[in-house]
Specification:
The complex is a heterodimer of chains A (about 550) and B (about 280). Chain A has about 550 residues and is an alpha/beta fold. Chain A has 23 helices and 22 strands. In chain A, strands 6-7-8-3-9-10-12-11 form an 8-stranded mixed β-sheet, with helices on both faces. Chain A has a 6-stranded mixed β-sheet with strand order 18-19-20-15-21-22, sandwiched between helices. A 4-stranded antiparallel β-sheet of chain A has the order 2-1-4-5, covered by helices on one side. In chain B, about 75% of the residues lie in helices and about 0% in strands. Chain B has 11 helices and no strands. Classes of the chains: A alpha/beta (about 550), B mainly alpha (about 280). Chains A and B meet through α13 and α15 of A and α8 and α9 of B.
Chain lengths: ~550, ~280
């Protein structure tokens, strides 16, 4: 059992790892993920006793605190009880010795057996690592990258260590070799404690039982691999997952705004976090364990912004919306798809208070909303289908975009005008006097929808309900508007409820999808999964209908 | 859709004629003391004079200058007409707007009241009411408005209902705007053209009704009015002089009503693009 308690590592006074707590049972594999500079390698090195900084805390292994051992004692453990495969296959092998010699040397350091049996054992190791008799006797420059990595793994396993630390074992390998190396590692891991340091979440997902996410030297999330990747709790983890597409990913790539900065007070992620509150810049969040998962966030992880519970809306005898439950999380897109007349727009209008609900309730940021007031409208905004109709033809751009401010914060006209220009800049429209004085009928469809988006954004809402925002626009403009909305989501962490009948569009935009039929949600789930293997027959029908016959003729 | 109503009316020849006539009439009414050398009630001494350079349209049975009477009569007509138009349109907006905003039961009550009022024959009741109240100018305006508002209220209600559902109003509601704000900034401006049309229509009807009532002699006898002029002229139909007395008043009244009708036509064409050729 490996137990890391309160580990803090400083390089010349600057902390690189801060208060790391990790426990690994025998046979367990853990992946440490995070971006470069997060402190992943330092964590591996400190377990190996190779770190060149000053360490505090305890690393308990076999009842001993590795940090308090003398150099000689830890040298004896290194290579025998714990081994590390270093990052980068190029520099790690000695160019003047063959692979076999080098593995034999690693055994010989900790063994008193005769040279012949050592070489035999070394050859056995190399063979099990995937080299053959010929390649085993090659010099490093004769080996391919994949074979070098295999040789390094064989070397690390020379004395069958208890702890195996793999630092980016697959970083520079092509996809095929990567898969082979990962399969090999899985086979060889056995009942060792394996720690894989990686920035590649697919390797982590394939290889490990558990995942720990490291950011700015702190563990911010930890839990069983499947759960962490399926429903990340920390916004950073979600950002990492969104940055790494796989073949089932449907949504466009989205990054994390900003970059990692050292010496941040409070939560180390807060300068880049889109759901930060004032507390985040002051206090370091304590890791909280819930249901076997750990997350360090003042807001308890990604916040459910808008919760719709058992919402119903009845028009006479028609039940337009029947007991719909939906939750919209911070920074995500939830696409609501369905044919026309399925109640999508009614749902949106009821949420916005344009129609009175006949049952159900809403929660906004956890608070129950009984009536729509300024509090609600400053956080939830809507974009309508047709921008030409949703902007009064009697208002110019300035008046239209300023209208929400005039209603909510009347008075300081100069400050409001400044906000208007800022909002226009965000939707990539000019803020000059000429444009501000234009009327809707002077604008193109795309420009008008941008103005409508700027108007919705000027109050800095957290939730944006977009009701068919592009159905009145032509295809090239649709693409621009959708990209704009996604970039705003990336920058500001907007939660978007996208209402559309266009499944192909929803697929590119949404994290999750909900399918609506006759006023009820019949299926809901991650977009890739829902479209990949639709369960409800109506979803299957929609997917089939969306597979355009024209396209199959072109391709 | 953005429509430049003013431009539309200017482009329409009927509309131009109507507006021009109205402007001339209004200028004459306002400038009456300058354009005429006599006061309408002033006795010039000469009765039944034919038109001459001294008395442009002659004099009446007691020697008052008919041209002066005609000008001051325009004042009465325009004043009562515009007053009644404004007041009745105000009532229409109030009732129609309320019916549209309230909906449901309130809507039904208001609209049935409007139906009932429209069914009442206005002239008979107006005569009775006028005979009973002996109304002065302000009382007459109120009385006429009471008959004029129901028609407008119906129009306003139907328009307000459609305007209420417009997308930019829904958008304004999602910014958290209050109903007074919506009515002030969105609904009334959107109703603008319809309101103007109703104003013009009510103006026309009010001018006509005022003339009718004073012709029947139930209005204030001290007020100079085209209706009263015609009624008095007809008493002297056995003499030759009546035409200098009756015809100008009748022509002026017809012209005013025609001008208002033309303006109304032009407006309607501007509002309803389907009427365009």
């Amino acid at each position: 059992m490996l137990d890391i308690r309160g580990l803090t590592v400083r390089y010349s006074g600057l902390p690189v790892l801060k208060d790391i707590n990790l426990t690994l049972e025998k046979g367990e594999s853990l992946s440490i993920i995070g971006e470069s500079g997060a402190g992943k390698t330092t964590l591996g090195l400190s377990v190996m006793g190779l770190v060149e900084g000053c360490c505090e805390g305890e690393i308990l292994f076999q009842g001993k605190n590795l940090l308090s051992l003398k150099e000689e004692e830890i040298r004896r453990l290194r290579g025998r009880e714990m081994a590390m495969v270093f990052q980068g296959v190029e520099g790690a092998l000695h160019p003047l010795y063959t692979a076999l010699d080098q593995v034999a040397e690693a055994i010989a350091v900790h063994s008193r057996k005769d040279a012949g049996s050592i070489r035999k054992k070394a050859l056995g190791l190399l063979l099990s690592a995937g080299l053959d008799e010929t390649t085993a006797c090659f010099y490093p420059h004769q080996l391919s990258g994949g074979l070098k990595q295999r040789a390094l793994i064989a070397m690390a396993l020379a004395n069958s260590p208890e702890i195996l630390i793999l630092d980016e074992p697959t970083a520079s390998l092509d996809a095929g070799t990567k898969a082979e190396i990962l399969a090999l590692l899985n086979k060889l891991a056995g009942d060792r404690i394996t720690i894989m340091i990686t920035h590649d979440i697919h390797s982590a997902a394939y290889f490990s039982d558990r995942v720990a996410v490291l950011y700015g030297g702190r563990l911010i999330e930890q839990g069983p691999t499947g759960e962490v990747f399926k429903s990340p709790l920390h916004p950073y983890t979600r950002g990492l997952i969104r940055s790494c597409p796989d073949l089932s990913t449907t949504k466009d790539l989205q990054g994390i705004p900003g970059r990692m900065m050292p010496g941040v007070t409070g939560c180390s992620f807060h300068p880049r976090c889109t759901q930060r509150i004032h507390l985040c810049s002051l206090d370091i969040p304590e890791p909280v364990v819930t249901g076997g998962r750990l997350v360090a966030c003042h807001r308890g992880g990604i916040v459910p912004l808008l919760e719709i519970k058992k919402l119903s809306k009845i028009f006479g005898k028609v039940k337009a919306v029947r007991e719909v439950d939906l939750t919209l999380y911070q920074g995500e897109t939830l696409a609501l798809v369905g044919e026309s007349g399925s109640g999508k727009t009614t749902l949106a209008r009821t949420v916005m208070g344009l129609l009175k609900e006949d049952g159900g309730e809403f929660c906004l940021e956890g608070a129950n909303i009984s009536k729509r007031d300024a509090f609600f409208y400053q956080r939830v905004q809507m974009i309508f289908q047709n921008p030409m109709e949703s902007i009064s033809h009697r208002m110019n751009v300035l008046q239209a975009v300023r209208e929400p401010l005039d209603i909510n914060r009347p008075g300081d006209e100069e400050a409001n005008n400044h906000l208007v220009r800022k909002a226009l800049d965000e939707v990539e429209l000019p803020g000059d006097q000429y444009f501000l004085n234009k009327y809707p009928h002077h604008l193109s469809g795309g420009e008008a929808q941008r103005v409508a988006i700027a108007r919705a954004l000027v109050l800095e809402p957290r939730v944006l309900i977009a009701d068919e925002p592009t159905s009145a626009l032509d295809a090239s403009i649709q693409a621009k508007i959708i990209k704009l909305m996604l970039s705003l989501q990336e920058k500001r962490g907007l939660a978007i409820l996208l209402i559309t009948h266009d499944i192909a569009l929803a697929r590119k935009v949404s994290d999750r999808m909900a399918v609506m039929l006759k006023g009820s949600i019949v299926e809901e789930g991650p977009a890739g999964k829902l479209l990949g293997s639709p369960r409800h027959q109506y979803t299957r029908l929609l997917v089939n209908q969306s597979e355009s016959p024209a396209k199959s003729m072109i391709l | 859709m953005h429509i430049n109503y003013w431009g539309e009316i200017k482009r329409d020849s009927l509309g131009r004629a109507g507006m021009g006539t109205l402007v001339v009439l209004a200028l004459l009414a306002i400038g009456a003391p300058i354009v005429s050398q006599y006061q309408p009630a002033e006795y010039t001494g000469a009765i039944f004079q034919p038109p001459s350079s001294q008395y442009w349209l002659g004099t009446n049975d007691v020697g008052q200058d008919i041209w002066a009477q005609l000008l001051y009569g325009a004042r009465t007509s325009l004043l009562i007409g515009s007053g009644a138009a404004l007041l009745s349109t105000f009532f229409s907006v109030l009732a129609g707007g309320m019916a549209a905003v309230l909906g449901g039961f309130g809507d039904r009550v208001l609209m049935r009241a409007v139906d009932a009022l429209i069914a009442v024959p206005p002239v008979i009741v107006a005569i009775l009411a006028a005979a009973y109240f002996r109304p002065g100018a302000s009382m007459l305006i109120i009385l006429l408005s009471a008959f004029l508002w129901p028609g407008g209220a119906r129009l306003i209600r139907s328009q307000a209902l459609s305007v209420k559902e417009r997308m930019h109003i829904a958008a304004a509601r999602t910014f958290g705007s209050s109903w007074p704000y919506l009515i002030r900034r969105h609904i009334i401006p959107d109703l603008g053209p319809v309101l103007t049309a109703i104003l013009v229509l009510n103006f026309r009807r009010a001018v006509f009704m005022e003339a009718g009532l004073s012709f029947l002699g139930v209005a204030d006898p001290t007020v100079i009015s085209w209706g009263k002029m015609m009624q008095q002229a007809l008493k002297f139909s056995y003499l030759e002089v009546w035409k200098w007395w009756l015809l100008p008043a009748g022509a002026a009244l017809s012209m005013t009503i025609a001008a208002l009708t033309f303006t109304g036509f032009a407006l309607e064409k501007a509002i309803n693009p389907r009427l365009k050729k």
